[in-house]
Amino acid sequence: MIDFNRKLSISEKINKQIDTALELERSFQPSRDYMGGSRIGAYCERALQYEITKTPVDPDKDLTGRILRIFARGHWIESVMSEWLKLAGFGLVTGPKDGGQFGFVSHDGHVKGHTDGIFVAGPEQLGPWPRLWECKGLEQKYFLALKRNKLQKEFPTYYGQCQYYMENLNLTDNPAYFCAVNMNRMEIHWEEVEYNPEYVSMLDAKAARVIMSCKAGELLPGAGQDPDFFKCKMCNWHDRCFSIK
Ligand code: SF4
Asked: What are the chain's domains?
């Protein structure tokens, strides 16, 4: 039986303060009314529709303070990686002079993306330049899986992001540099991602299909058939989706 009168520990009390503040701050941020270019390679078109149309997530999938702290960790690792790269002699630009990130718009404004940075110079043996730069922080098990299986197989969403950003930021001449940091051990894994125009065409067709279906008020088929499939279990609209399948 749950003890509702249990006294909260000091960690629980302080963390509750932090998480409540983070959740409140988040509630004031405007939500997206477009498809993120970083999401276009995602597994399921129906889930992308739910995302764009701001369909309420399942009750147990709301963004909690802990998840918001994980998001903040991702921004932090990008920021320190860019400092380390500059210290190491790379010419890395992370945004226009007046602030923000380099971005693009496609599909009449329905798709937008912002890159972590662009390498414009660096050690000669690691060029040629320029190149797109994308950076992710991963837990150990995902980091090891990435090293084993490589980006396209293990993280098609991140692979799609690199492809779509190379195309839309006009950085197709040289492979992108994708890096992942092991957030447990702080190891760093790098991959060169060659531009793949066929893959970009597939992503563009997917974006067009998702956007048109949203406009028409039609729901596309979900990619998953099994509610216990891990990608569906992690989906924010799992219960909603399988209640109408
Ligand atoms: S539960 Fe699976 S099939 Fe349904 S929207 Fe989510 S990812 Fe797609």
From this structure: 35-243 (3.90.320.10)
